[in-house]
Write a structure and sequence with these properties.
The structure is a homodimer.
Chain A: E1 5-13, E2 16-23, E3 31-40, H1 43-50, E4 61-62, E5 67-74, E6 82-85, H2 95-98, E7 124-128, E8 133-134, H3 154-162, E9 170-174, H4 179-190, E10 195-200, H5 203-209, E11 216-219, H6 225-238, E12 248-251, H7 256-265, E13 271-274, E14 282-284, H8 287-292, E15 295-298, H9 307-315, E16 325-329, H10 333-342, E17 348-352
Parallel strand pairs in A: 9-10, 9-12, 10-11, 12-13, 13-15, 16-17
Antiparallel strand pairs in A: 1-2, 1-4, 3-5, 3-7, 3-17, 5-6, 6-8
Cofactor (chains A, B): Zn(2+)
InterPro entries (chains A, B): ADH-like_C (IPR013149), ADH-like_N (IPR013154), Dearomat_deydrogenase (IPR017614), GroES-like_sf (IPR011032), NAD(P)-bd_dom_sf (IPR036291)
Keywords (chains A, B): Metal-binding, Oxidoreductase, Zinc
């Protein structure tokens, strides 16, 4: 039965959370009511909450865009299905949607950002049924964990596709110890990279990522960009890999330091993919791209039609979710936001509704 | 008969030209001796001569990399053929060469830059025969004019391929009044762009480019980047073109102003191709690329195997050479360099040997 209200944790204004109830929206044809199993806490949520990055829907609104759950109402063919809700929901009808760029549909809606007041830190959410990704055959992976597919794993997958990642490639992940970066590392390896090099600052997390996709790690602490490049070249030379060209670099931190390092590593026929958000500016000589025949690609979300491929990677074990996520009851949202903001979390937190 | 010496204009050091003779190099199997018909004066030559940009082969060397001529010796199957000499000559054997990136082969040689002391401002040059582009069926186009294919037309063609330019696209050329930019405009139109917008500062040259590929021109004088964007949007709205996304921007000036403008025009699913060389740096928020799902592509030269397609465009009239080039005797090289450096030339100058 569809409840008349949705329980939610609302951002009444940046920095302020309120447990409240909001009306269940009126269902349009094709809508599905999803009872939320889990909603991941993403760096983007923290940007809205702490850093003044504006949401399209002005507060009050519920944050949260990384959602999994069970369809309990609306579109009859979907009722009872376990699903992942895409973080970016396109219109499905415009020229961008019909040309494979639905992830950047200009009419797109994102829960917890631009889908009215509705977001994932709630008991339920109403979304268009046709973009939902059914999570059949999930085996013993908790449905709540699969919410990470909605952003943390699909965004790296789309980044890899945009970089035209091929079996045999050398991939370098900057910020490989973070939420997006750790899945970027796993996805790059799952796609057949000959070597994936994970760069970060936390030795414990680097040790962990070596078990999940990274062939080599570099701890940035105390190193200059030149030192990093030297270590990379040495690794390539020691392992019969190309040290001169074709590196595919994934920048997942969104920080100026990370971006400066990425730009300094970019060389002949290289590709730099920007998938970490930050508001800093960088300074660069664009003609270097010309001399290098290199490129810089920004990537946003992932088209919903690609979600099943990513889910498959998680279900068949090419990408491990469990070691990188941690469940907490949604009532701890304020505490979790604080810990995440301070950088005190070791895993991506998934909040499970406990209203 | 192969002469024992090559007549040439040598850059003895930056800023200094000397008419002299250099030995004809010993021919290796597969080499061809080309009697030069014309060699274009490129912005790059001026960078070496006036701006201290270093050549790989330290002076003394002959500059000039935009060469056409007739094979008079060496590889027997080529003797008597009229040819264009690729500006960038790959090794043909490395991994980059075999994966379609021969334009960025790391063992590449460029006449007038890295091919020993040899360059195009000379009577003859010796090059590997297998990369030469035969100019059969050139009709009434002078062979000397076809030297422009070696860089000024092939570089824009490769830029268009790198941008995945499609029929129906909207292309914007910044610096459309310059040597590379005017051919970029023509090539974009020849490849079926729905509209090509040419941006420059010289009204007379803008009027000319409207006859050769540009559907609309914008004179930058007195305009801010925002004004330019407004004019572009207005043009799109007036002509039923998409004003919100997918613009393909070609930056051909290599200047900071041109690059800043290009970056400010880059928007949703946009592509910026950098094909103008300059040493200035720009400052940009890389996360904008992420939010826009946009990309910046640097492009270098053109693989020799693509030259025939470009030559065909010039021969069948899709790209007009004649209105954009001007022949001058090679003995006027110093004067031409000066005029080009001051920006006093209206057309790309092709120097014809008159030793």
């Amino acid at each position: 039965m569809i409840p008349t209200h949705i329980d939610t944790w609302q951002m009444t204004r940046p920095g302020e959370l309120l447990r409240t109830q909001i009306p269940m929206p009126e269902l349009r044809p094709g809508d599905a009511v999803v009872k939320i199993s889990g909603c991941g806490v993403c760096h983007t949520d923290l940007s809205y909450f702490y850093l003044g990055v504006p949401t399209i829907q002005e507060p009050p609104l519920s944050l949260g865009h990384e959602i999994s759950g069970i369809v309990i109402g609306g579109e009859p063919s979907m009722i009872g299905k376990e699903v992942v809700v895409p973080a970016v929901i396109p219109c499905g009808e415009c020229e961008l949607c019909s040309s494979g760029r639905s992830n950047r549909c200009l009419s797109q809606q994102m829960p917890g950002y631009s889908m009215g007041i509705y977001g994932g830190f709630s008991s339920h959410i109403v979304v268009p049924a046709k973009f939902l990704c059914p999570a059949d055959n999930r085996g013993d992976i908790p449905l709540s964990h699969l919410c990470a597919v909605a952003d943390a794993v699909t965004t790296p997958y789309q980044a890899a596709l945009r970089a035209r990642l091929q079996p045999g490639d050398l991939a370098i992940v900057i910020g490989a110890t973070g939420g997006i970066g750790s899945f970027m590392t796993q996805v790059a390896k799952a796609m057949g990279c000959r070597a994936v090099i994970a760069i970060g600052r936390n030795e414990e997390k680097l040790a962990k990522i070596r078990k999940y996709g990274a062939d080599f790690t570099i701890n940035l602490s105390g190193l200059s960009p030149r030192d990093v490049k030297d270590q990379l070249r040495q690794f390539c030379n020691d392992n019969g890999l190309c040290s001169t060209h074709g590196w595919k670099i994934f920048e997942a931190t969104g920080t100026k330091d990370g971006q400066d390092l990425a730009l300094s590593l970019l060389s002949y026929t290289g590709t730099l993919v920007v998938l970490g958000y930050g508001t800093d500016k960088t300074t660069y000589m664009l003609s270097r791209l010309m001399a290098f025949d290199a490129e810089i690609i920004g990537t946003w979300g992932c088209p919903p039609e690609k979600y099943p491929e990513v889910l498959e990677m998680c279900i068949d074990g090419r990408v491990s979710l469990e070691p990188f996520v941690e469940e907490r009851p949604m009532s701890e949202i304020a505490q979790v936001f604080e810990q995440a903001h301070r950088g005190d979390l070791r895993r991506r937190v998934i909040l499970t509704p406990d209203f």
